[in-house]
Structures are given as C-alpha cells and as structure tokens.
C-alpha cells in the first residue's frame, strides 16, 4: 500500500497544478475560454511556449479577436514573443479579420520596429509587397507612419521591394509628394523612383508626383522633383492641366513663378479651354498677370470651352471686376477691346451686365463701341441728354455718367 506520507506533489505535478491555476485565473479575469490568448495578453512567453509545445495552434483567432497571435505580439512590440510564434509555425502573411486585411509586417512597419520587420522577413519569409485591402504595402506603411521610416524603407528596398509599385492607383512617391514629406521624397528620388509616373485611378485624373506636390503647395518638393529628379514640367493630367496651371488655380504664385522660370509654357490650354492668362484673369492676381503679359502671353486668345462663351482674358477680367488687370491688358498688352465672345458681347457689355461700372466707364473712355440698340434689347434703359449720357438699368439704378460732349 502507498503510504499517506508519500510525496504526491512531484515537481512535474506541481508545474501542472500551477499551470492549471494560472489558466483558470486568466480565463476568469478575461471572460474568455482561451487560456492561450489570455497568456498572450499577459505576454507570458514561457506559458505560451508550453502551450505551443503541447499542440496549441499558433494561428487561431479566438472569439472577439480579429487579429492573429503573431499580429498581436507585433502590436505589443514583443520581439521574443514574435520570435517564438514564428519559430512555432505562425503564419506571417495571415490577415486581420476586418475591413483592412492587414498582416503583421504592415503593423511592424507602421510602428517603426526594424528588428521585428527583419524577423518577419528573414525568419518568417514574409511577403514584402503584400497589400492590405486598401492597397497599402509595407513600404507605404513604413514611409507614412513612424520615426524610423527611412531605415525600414531602405531595408525593404535592399530586400527587393518595388519602389514604384502602384496600389490603388498611386505609388509611394505620389503619396509622400502629396503629403509633403521632403525627406522621404528625396530618399525615393535618390533610389530611382519614377518621377513622371501617373496615378492610374480613373478619378485621380492621372497625376504625376509633381502634380501632387504642386496642388498641395509643397514648393521644396517641387524643386526636388524638377532639379534632382528631372521631372517633366509639361506633362499634363487627364484634364490637360500641368503643374504650372495647377499652381495658378491654387493661387500659389511663388510656385507658379518657379515653374515659369523653369520653362513652363504660358499659352498652353488645358482641356477646359483655359490658358494661364485666363486663369489669372479669373483669380485677379495683377503681379502674375503682368509677368505673363510682359513675357508675350496672347492677350486676345479665347477660351476653347463653349461653356465659357469663348471669352478673352479681357472679357473675363471685366466680368470678375478686376479693373487693374483690365487696364494692364489694354495698356500694356494692347488687348483688342472690341473682341466679342460667342454671344457677341464685348468686355464693355459684360462689365455693364455685371454692374462693374468703373470698368465699363474705363472701356468706354478707351473707345469701346456702345451699340445702344443691343444694350436696349438686353434690358438696359438709356437716357440721352445734351452733353450727358446716362445709362440706366430697367429699375433706374445709375450705372455711370459720361461727360463727353459727343458720342
């Protein structure tokens, strides 16, 4: 018979009892039925190892968890736990069970953890170009979301990642040129990124990185792309807009002047039928309009869009009420004040129609034809008096007074 004094609690049994108690405690604290996940949450590496050695699946998701054990360990930046899971067969390319579809390498790059990135790639054979459901690759995550971005990006490139890989229409250079990260842009350009590559999404209008930088006003990145990357400044997007016209639209005249000095064409029309001078006439920037006029911009060029009624820069400036630009176009650009739009309306007529009476008076003094019958047909009332012409709108508001003795 066994003696009651026989030591039943051997070291092995004590270990099993302790393990059972710990598992029970973990489960009761978290409300789950998974001792393994509870050990992960507590980052009890030794306990996790015991369970894995005894048949625990290293890839199983439990209950509410949308992430794999390895993904969780990467999130916690626990290198030893990551190394253990990889060694025990964790799937390094297993996606999260949510709308993002991320893998452990994505989060490792985003968190800037180079040792774990190397572990996943070198010991786990992680796919270095795998994209999530939104098209973001490990390189994109590395470039956007951490302080060690350049170290990780350099490592991924040395491992063979494609620097110009397009995901959801954009390359890494498109992304960082748009957000304005100069250091990363410089890194990509120096490593051979294609500076003239266009986005491929239909809704993106086929932008180059230079377009992205110009639209967002990143002057230093524009200079980098042009001077170090030899970006083609005349490449247009699907709307016919170049980096130059985009800078004008955004009223970034410092950037526009830089591109002009680098050779941007000043009379190039986009697909909306607008030249740079048309754009500036709408915006009302006198200084840049003067630059264009003094450098030979065609002041009588009409817009090519029927919706704009085939207007000249003078007509546009008259409509918008930019008196100083009207004077500039007439006096320095020798603009023809009698050119009419597709409706037969001159700058003088359009100034009256928009109640820009000071401009109308200026153009009248410069010899604009009044065409009184046409004005009357358009709804204007006209009162003629000896030595005085008063143009009135139908409700009787005074437009301007001409004190010339004869018409």
TrEMBL record:
<feature type="repeat" description="ANK">
    <location>
        <begin position="65"/>
        <end position="97"/>
    </location>
</feature>
<feature type="transmembrane region" description="Helical">
    <location>
        <begin position="378"/>
        <end position="401"/>
    </location>
</feature>
<dbReference type="InterPro" id="IPR002110">
    <property type="entry name" value="Ankyrin_rpt"/>
</dbReference>
<keyword id="KW-0732">Signal</keyword>
<dbReference type="InterPro" id="IPR036770">
    <property type="entry name" value="Ankyrin_rpt-contain_sf"/>
</dbReference>
<feature type="repeat" description="ANK">
    <location>
        <begin position="100"/>
        <end position="124"/>
    </location>
</feature>
<feature type="repeat" description="ANK">
    <location>
        <begin position="205"/>
        <end position="229"/>
    </location>
</feature>
<dbReference type="Pfam" id="PF12796">
    <property type="entry name" value="Ank_2"/>
</dbReference>
<feature type="signal peptide">
    <location>
        <begin position="1"/>
        <end position="25"/>
    </location>
</feature>
<dbReference type="Pfam" id="PF13637">
    <property type="entry name" value="Ank_4"/>
</dbReference>
<feature type="repeat" description="ANK">
    <location>
        <begin position="239"/>
        <end position="271"/>
    </location>
</feature>
<feature type="repeat" description="ANK">
    <location>
        <begin position="272"/>
        <end position="304"/>
    </location>
</feature>
<keyword id="KW-0472">Membrane</keyword>
<protein>
    <recommendedName>
        <fullName>Ankyrin repeat protein</fullName>
    </recommendedName>
</protein>
<keyword id="KW-0677">Repeat</keyword>
<keyword id="KW-0812">Transmembrane</keyword>
<keyword id="KW-0040">ANK repeat</keyword>
<feature type="repeat" description="ANK">
    <location>
        <begin position="134"/>
        <end position="168"/>
    </location>
</feature>
<feature type="repeat" description="ANK">
    <location>
        <begin position="168"/>
        <end position="200"/>
    </location>
</feature>
<keyword id="KW-1133">Transmembrane helix</keyword>
């Amino acid at each position: 018979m066994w003696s009651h004094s026989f030591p039943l609690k051997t070291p092995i049994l004590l270990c099993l009892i302790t393990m059972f108690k710990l598992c029970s405690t973990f489960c009761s604290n978290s409300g789950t039925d998974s001792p393994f996940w509870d050990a992960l949450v507590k980052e009890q590496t030794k306990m996790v190892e015991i369970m894995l050695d005894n048949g625990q699946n290293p890839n199983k998701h439990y209950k509410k968890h949308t992430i794999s054990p390895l993904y969780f360990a990467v999130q916690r930046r626990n290198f030893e736990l990551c190394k253990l899971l990889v060694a025990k067969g964790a799937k390094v390319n297993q996606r999260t069970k949510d709308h993002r579809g991320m893998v452990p390498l994505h989060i490792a790059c985003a968190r800037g953890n180079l040792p774990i990135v190397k572990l996943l790639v070198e010991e786990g054979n992680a796919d270095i170009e795998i994209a999530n459901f939104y098209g973001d690759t490990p390189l994109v995550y590395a470039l956007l979301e951490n302080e060690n971005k350049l170290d990780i990006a350099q490592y991924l490139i040395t491992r063979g990642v494609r620097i110009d890989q397009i995901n959801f229409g954009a390359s890494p250079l498109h992304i960082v040129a748009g957000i304005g990260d100069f250091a990363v842009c410089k890194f990509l350009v120096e490593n051979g990124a294609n500076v003239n590559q266009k986005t491929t999404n239909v809704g993106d209008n086929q932008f180059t990185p230079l377009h992205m930088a110009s639209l967002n006003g990143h002057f230093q990145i524009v200079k980098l792309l042009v001077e170090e990357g030899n970006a083609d400044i005349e490449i247009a997007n699907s709307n016919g807009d170049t980096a130059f016209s985009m800078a004008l639209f955004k009223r970034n005249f410092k950037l526009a002047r830089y591109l002009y000095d680098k050779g941007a064409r000043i009379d190039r029309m986009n697909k909306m039928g607008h030249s740079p001078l048309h754009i500036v006439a709408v915006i009302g920037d006198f200084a840049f309009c003067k630059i264009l006029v003094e450098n030979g911009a065609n002041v009588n060029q009409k817009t090519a869009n029927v919706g704009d009624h085939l207007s000249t820069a003078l007509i546009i400036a008259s409509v918008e009420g930019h008196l100083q630009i009207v004077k500039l176009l007439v006096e320095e650009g020798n603009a023809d004040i009698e050119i009419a739009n597709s409706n037969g309306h001159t700058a003088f007529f359009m100034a009256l129609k928009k109640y820009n009476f000071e401009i109308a008076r200026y153009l009248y003094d410069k010899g604009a034809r009044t065409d009184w019958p046409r004005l009357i047909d358009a709804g204007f009332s006209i009162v003629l008096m000896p030595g005085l012409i008063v143009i009135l709108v139908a409700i009787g508001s005074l437009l301007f007074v001409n004190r010339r003795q004869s018409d």
